[in-house]
């Protein structure tokens, strides 16, 4: 943390996990819900499949037992018929049916599972075996008076009584098994309505809790990080981002706060360096902008004579006072140049301001033997800072006078379109040594004059920018240079304030 940096922490007492850990926990929770749902589905499918197979087995056994019961009665009837007729050929269907009965008993034994089912089947098989043994004896015995009655009595005992009881026990066991399977399916269907939605509800709760958790440790801190970064980008270096959320978010917030503190410190150092550099430029700037008013004062003093009348002395005195007052205003504007300044807006009559500038430049035009012409319409008005604009135009005018040759001419004109007033200052000199409109920093530049500091054009450029206008230079078709100051009729904030 940067020294002296205080940051509000919302959760200092509650250590937050890393974002990757939280995401892993949420993914594992969702995976667990998915596995639980899959397990329930698999259990239901397995149970349904087992119940279905069991139900099919029981129904098949019931059908097989019923068919066995019918076959036994059919076989018994065939025996009775053979006994009545005494025909040995009539016994053939009986013996064929006997082999079929043995095969049916074997198939039933293969499908039976519980001991109760096997016991019931064994009772049926014993009854059938006893019946078959007695019938075999009766059929092979000879000389019996009434074989028919004996066969009928054996059938009545072993089929009507013993086999029927064993068959009833088997069907009862199978019916009980079938009822148990049905009951199990009914229970599954009853609980499935409540059990199967549980993983879905749990998954929804996990998603909601995950969203709330992510919003707490990621979304909200990220929004605060974004707002803090935007505030710092706007220059509010004192803004600090709360170090909250996941460990990564806290680290990022601390980094942004540290960066803001470092940028603030660096900006203060840079401003201090610029302030020192501006102070170093103060001397040539003051010299440049004070020399011209001092020249005017000197010329007025030299022009005065002890033999002048009172009126001439008064005019000279008033001219000196006006020049000194103007010098004071310009000095204040020069000091403002060292720091960001905001023009003080007022309505300025362009013609009156140019006329006053022309009057101030009389000593220079006389010394250089240069003719100064002005062509300004009376109705041109502009909203601007008069002192700044006047000082900038004065510097450009003096540059034009000093650049023009002896017997030369300097012309000041103005034109207006829908939104802009442009003031042109034309001279007949050799041209300027650089293009100030492409300068990266505003400061003293090269000059073609022996005693110049090179600050006049950069100062004029900055004044134009502060008014939302432009300063441009171009060559005239014949000879000389044109300085064009374009300003909006209604002042807007410029880019260099």
Number of extended strands: 7
Q: How would you write the strand order of the largest sheet?
A: 2-4-5-7-6
Calculate the mean pLDDT score and round it: 76
Q: Please state the structural category.
A: alpha+beta
Total helices: the number is 11
Name the shape in a single word: rod-shaped
Main pleated sheet: 5 strands, mixed
Low-confidence stretches: 1-13, 436-453, 492-497
How much of the residues is beta strand, in percent?
5-15%
Q: What helical percentage do the residues reach?
A: 55-70%
Task: Give the oligomeric state.
Answer: single chain
Radius of gyration: 59 Å
Helix-strand string? HHHHHHHEHHEEHEEHEE
* Terminus-to-terminus distance: 34 Å
Tell me briefly what this model is:
By secondary structure, the chain is an alpha+beta fold. The protein has helices at 19-85, 92-111, 115-140, 147-195, 197-233, 247-303, 310-337, 350-360, 362-368, 386-403, 456-466; strands spanning 346-349, 371-375, 381-384, 409-416, 420-426, 470-475, 481-488.
Task: From the structure above, extract its key features.
disordered C terminus; 5-stranded mixed beta sheet; 11 helices; two-stranded antiparallel ribbon; rod-shaped
SSE inventory with pairings:
Layout: H1 19-85, H2 92-111, H3 115-140, H4 147-195, H5 197-233, H6 247-303, H7 310-337, E1 346-349, H8 350-360, H9 362-368, E2 371-375, E3 381-384, H10 386-403, E4 409-416, E5 420-426, H11 456-466, E6 470-475, E7 481-488
Parallel strand pairs: 2-4
Antiparallel strand pairs: 1-3, 4-5, 5-7, 6-7
């Amino acid at each position: 943390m940067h020294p002296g940096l205080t940051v509000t922490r919302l959760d200092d007492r509650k250590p937050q996990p890393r974002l990757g850990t939280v995401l892993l926990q949420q993914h594992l929770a969702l995976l667990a819900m998915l596995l639980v749902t899959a397990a329930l589905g698999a259990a239901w499918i397995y149970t349904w499949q087992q119940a279905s197979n069991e139900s099919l087995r029981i129904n098949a056994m019931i059908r097989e037992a019923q068919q066995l019961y019918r076959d036994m009665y059919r076989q018994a009837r065939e025996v009775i018929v053979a006994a009545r007729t005494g025909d040995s050929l009539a016994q053939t269907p009986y013996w064929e049916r006997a082999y079929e009965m043995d095969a049916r008993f074997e198939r039933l034994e293969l499908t039976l599972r519980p001991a109760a089912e096997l016991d019931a089947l064994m009772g049926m098989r014993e009854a059938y075996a006893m019946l078959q043994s007695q019938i075999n004896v009766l059929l092979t015995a000879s000389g019996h008076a009434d074989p028919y009655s004996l066969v009928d009595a054996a059938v009545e005992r072993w089929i009507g009584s013993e086999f029927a009881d064993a068959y009833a026990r088997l069907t009862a066991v199978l019916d009980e098994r079938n009822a148990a399977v049905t009951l199990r399916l009914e229970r599954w269907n009853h609980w499935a309505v409540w059990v199967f939605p549980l993983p879905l509800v749990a998954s929804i709760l996990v998603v909601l809790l995950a969203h709330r958790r992510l919003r707490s440790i990621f979304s909200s801190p990220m929004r605060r990080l974004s707002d803090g970064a935007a505030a710092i980008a706007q220059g509010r270096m004192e803004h600090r981002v709360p170090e909250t959320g996941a460990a990564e978010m806290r680290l990022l917030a601390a980094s942004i706060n540290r960066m803001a503190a470092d940028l603030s410190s660096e900006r203060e150092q840079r401003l201090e360096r610029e302030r020192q550099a501006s102070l170093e430029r103060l001397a040539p700037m003051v010299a440049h902008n004070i020399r011209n008013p001092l020249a005017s004062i000197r010329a007025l003093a030299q022009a005065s004579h002890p033999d002048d009348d009172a009126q001439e002395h008064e005019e000279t005195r008033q001219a000196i006072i006006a020049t000194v007052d103007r010098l004071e205003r310009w000095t204040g504007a020069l000091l403002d140049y060292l720091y960001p300044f905001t023009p003080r807006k007022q309505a300025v009559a362009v013609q009156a301001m140019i006329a006053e500038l022309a009057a101030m430049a009389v000593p220079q035009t006389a010394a250089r033997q240069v003719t100064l012409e002005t062509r300004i319409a009376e109705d041109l008005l502009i909203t601007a800072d008069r002192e700044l604009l006047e000082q900038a135009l004065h510097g450009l005018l003096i540059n034009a006078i000093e650049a023009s040759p002896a017997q030369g001419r300097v012309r000041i004109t103005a034109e207006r379109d829908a939104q802009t007033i442009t003031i042109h200052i034309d001279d007949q000199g050799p041209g300027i040594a650089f293009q100030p409109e492409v300068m990266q920093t505003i400061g003293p530049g090269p000059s073609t004059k022996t005693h110049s500091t090179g600050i006049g054009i950069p100062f004029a450029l900055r004044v134009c920018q502060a008014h939302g206008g432009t300063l441009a230079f171009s060559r005239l078709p014949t000879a000389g240079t044109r300085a064009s100051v374009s300003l909006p009729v209604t002042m807007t904030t410029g880019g260099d304030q």
